[in-house]
Write a structure and sequence with these properties.
The chain is an all-alpha fold and about 425 residues long. Helices cover about 80% and strands about 0% of the residues. The protein is built from 16 helices and no strands.
Length: about 425
C-alpha cells in the first residue's frame, strides 16, 4: 500500500511538472501574439515616412491583423475542441513567422496589408488553444488563476514589442527587426510541435476530466456547443463586456499610443517605447491579480468585472481632461492602467466561459468570446485615425492634443457600455465557493 501511494504521488508530481512545461511553452508562443499586435506602435512613424501612409491607411494596415484574427476565433475554438492544440498551433504559428519575414522585405502597401492579415491569421489560434490546454492540464480550482497568469504573460510580448523593439529597430531598421521576429517565430513553432500534448493521458498521466467510454461525435459536439453558447443571453452580456475592454486597450494601445507620446509629448521613438512598456507590465500584474481576486477574494467574476470597468472609464476620463498636461511619470502610470484594466481583466471572461459551459465547450466558447473584440478593434483603430485627422494637425504636421481628447470620448463610451453589460449580467454558475 505505501508503495502504491508513493507511485501515485510520483505520477502526480510528474504530471504537474509537465503541465508547467506545457504552460511555459504556450506562454512563450502567446507573448508573440501580443508582440505582433503592437508592433505598429513603434514602426508607425517609419512606415509613414518610407511609404507616405496617411493616418487612416496606417489604421487599416494595423487593424487588418485583428480582422483575420477575429474571423478565425470560432474556427480556433472548434479546432481546439476537436482536432486539438497539438495539431493546430505549430502550423498556424509558422505562417505568422513567414508573414513577418515577408512584411520586412516588401515595399508595397498592399503587401504590408496582406502580410499583417496573415500574421493575424497565424497567431489567431494560440490563445484559445492555450486556454484549452490549461483546462486539460490544471485542476478546476486553479483555472482562473492560471488563465490570469497566462493572459498576464502576454504582457511580456507587449514589453518586447515596445521598448526592446524600438532598440532593435534602431540597430537593424524596421525591416530587419520584422525579419528577425519572423525567424524566431518559426523556430518556436518547431519547438511547439515536439513539446505540446493535448491532455495528460496523451503522455500517460491521469486526466483531471471525468473519463467516459462513450464515443463522442466531434461534428455533433461542435453543433451542440455552438447552439448552446449562442442561445445563452449570459454569454452575450459577458461578450459585450469582454469586447469593450479588449477594444479599448488594443485600439488605442496597439497603434495610437505611440503617436500620442511622440506628437503631443514630443518623446523620441525609444522614449515612447519605454513608456509603452508599461502596457506589458500592466498585463503581467493585472492578469494574475484579477484572477486571484476572482478565485480567492470575491469568489465571483462579476464584481471584479465591474471594478475594472469603472477604473477604465476613469482612466480615459483623465486622457480627455488632462492628456496634454500629463507628466512623464503620469504617462507611465496611464499606460500601465489601460493594460491592467483592459487586457489584464480578460481572464474573467474566459473563466466565465468554463463556469457556464463546462470543459467540453471551453475552446468553442472562448473562441466565440475572442472573436468580437477583434472586429471591433479593426473598426475602432481607423475610426480613431479619422477622428485625429478631422481634429486637425499642428503646423509641424503632427496630431494634436485636441484630437486625442476627442478620441478619448469614443473610448469612454465603450467603457460605459461594458459597465452596463457587467451590471446586467448574472454571476456564472461555478464551483468557486
Amino acid at each position: 500500500m505505501p508503495e502504491t501511494s508513493l507511485s501515485i504521488r510520483k505520477g502526480v508530481g510528474m504530471r504537474e511538472r509537465y503541465a508547467v512545461l506545457i504552460f511555459t511553452v504556450i506562454c512563450l508562443a502567446y507573448l508573440f501574439v501580443t508582440f505582433h499586435r503592437v508592433t505598429p506602435n513603434i514602426i508607425a512613424v517609419d512606415l509613414t515616412k518610407d511609404l507616405n501612409l496617411s493616418a487612416v491607411t496606417l489604421g487599416w494596415m494595423s487593424s487588418v491583423f485583428f480582422f483575420t484574427f477575429g474571423l478565425m476565433q470560432l474556427p480556433s475554438g472548434l479546432l481546439a475542441d476537436t482536432l486539438g492544440p497539438k495539431k493546430t498551433i505549430p502550423a498556424f504559428f509558422a505562417i505568422a513567422g513567414l508573414a513577418s519575414v515577408w512584411f520586412g522585405m516588401t515595399d508595397t502597401v498592399w503587401v504590408l496589408i496582406l502580410t499583417r492579415a496573415l500574421m493575424g491569421f497565424g497567431v489567431s489560434v494560440i490563445f484559445v488553444c492555450g486556454v484549452k490546454l490549461i483546462s486539460n492540464w490544471f485542476p478546476p480550482d486553479r483555472f482562473a488563476s492560471m488563465n490570469g497568469l497566462y493572459l498576464g504573460m502576454g504582457g511580456i510580448g507587449l514589453i518586447l514589442g515596445s521598448g526592446p523593439l524600438a532598440y532593435l529597430c534602431a540597430s537593424l531598421g524596421w525591416r530587419g527587426a520584422m525579419i528577425a521576429t519572423g525567424i524566431v517565430t518559426v523556430a518556436i513553432a518547431t519547438a511547439l510541435q515536439f513539446m505540446v500534448f493535448d491532455k495528460p493521458e496523451d503522455k500517460g498521466f491521469e486526466s483531471f476530466q471525468a473519463q467516459s467510454d462513450k464515443k463522442v461525435d466531434a461534428v455533433q459536439l461542435m453543433k451542440d456547443n455552438i447552439r448552446r453558447i449562442c442561445s445563452s443571453w449570459q454569454f452575450w452580456l459577458i461578450a459585450v463586456w469582454f469586447c469593450c475592454h479588449f477594444t479599448i486597450h488594443m485600439a488605442f494601445g496597439g497603434v495610437w499610443g505611440g503617436p500620442f507620446l511622440m506628437d503631443v509629448h514630443h518623446l523620441s521613438r525609444v522614449e515612447a517605447g519605454n513608456v509603452i512598456n508599461m502596457m506589458g507590465i500592466g498585463m503581467l500584474v493585472g492578469g494574475p491579480i484579477n484572477g486571484y481576486l476572482s478565485d480567492k477574494v470575491f469568489h465571483a467574476r462579476r464584481p471584479v468585472m465591474i471594478i475594472n470597468s469603472l477604473l477604465m472609464i476613469a482612466t480615459f476620463g483623465c486622457l480627455y481632461a488632462l492628456g496634454e498636461n500629463f507628466s512623464l511619470i503620469t504617462c507611465y502610470v496611464w499606460f500601465f492602467a489601460i493594460a491592467a484594466f483592459g487586457m489584464g481583466a480578460l481572464s474573467l471572461g474566459f473563466a466565465s466561459m468554463k463556469d457556464i459551459f463546462g470543459a467540453s465547450a471551453t475552446g468553442t466558447a472562448s473562441g466565440l468570446l475572442n472573436a468580437f473584440p477583434s472586429f471591433a478593434v479593426a473598426f475602432i483603430q481607423p475610426l480613431t485615425g479619422a477622428i485625429l485627422e478631422a481634429s486637425g494637425k499642428s503646423a509641424a504636421g503632427t496630431f494634436t492634443s485636441t484630437g486625442f481628447s476627442n478620441a478619448a470620448l469614443l473610448y469612454i463610451g465603450l467603457g460605459v457600455l461594458g459597465l452596463a453589460a457587467a451590471f446586467i449580467a448574472k454571476e456564472p454558475l461555478s464551483n468557486l465557493k
